[in-house]
Amino acid sequence: MGFYLYCIGAAPLTPPAAGGVDDAPLTVVEAASLVALGSVTAECPLPSVERVRQHDRVIRAATNEAATPLPARFGQWFATREVLAARLREEAAGYRRALAAVQGALEFSVHVSSEQWATESEIEPNADSGRAYMEALAKREEARRAARAHELQIAEELDAWFGSLVRGRRLAGAGRNRRRDPMAKPVTTTKRVTVAHLVPRAEIPRYRRETSRYARANPALDVRVSGPWPPYSFAE
Amino acid sequence: MALAELVSRVLDRGVVVSGEVVVGVAGIDLLYLGLDLILTSVQTLEEKTSRPISPTEGCDG
């Protein structure tokens, strides 16, 4: 039997009473003063909405004021518990550093968009000639660079606004609102910038107030905040 | 939005111990297909199961 992974914490870490993906009982693998929380399963579970929710539920249940484990990405399965223990030993120093960085903090996402950021239709390199194709590629790359710069600008504005309230920040990647059908023709969309913040638990009430204040101070922007999340974006 | 964010995080963020994540359906590696398709699949699954999407539960925070 193999081992399906949910998160990695510092010892001691008590498995939540609830089950994991497909209600599999939770158990732990310990190595190098680290604890991997998981389930013993015959194979890696395939993704589904319910399993994604169950995976997240386990991580949330293991996250509390005393412990902030590193959430694991869905789909990590090890043929034996020993294989995982060996990996934990090999990378123990890095995991300890990451655990120290997220200890006592949770993740929030700030989504900022504006109608004023409406962009041209996505550039698709479907030109007839080789030259036109290359020009279309260059335009797309230029648009990506501009989007990245814009994302950084917004993130830095948020940095200045929140100051020491935020322990860490990650950019989610400049992009456009996702089309529901990836095979559909490109449509004009509105750019949205998403920034993940790592916020100490004690600062969460102030953080919420500051996000509301930021939104009121920037009426041209659509500002939405989600969270708290386990620190998925800060566990990579 | 809440479900899309949840799926995005759980499938695309978090610590990777083995150096690779195998997420596939019917032998196809979804990582190479991209998150758009995964989200479309999620939407299809929801339509088929007709389950209401509840807001993401909050952490103990």
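Residues 27-39, 48-61 of chain B have pLDDT under 50 and may be disordered.
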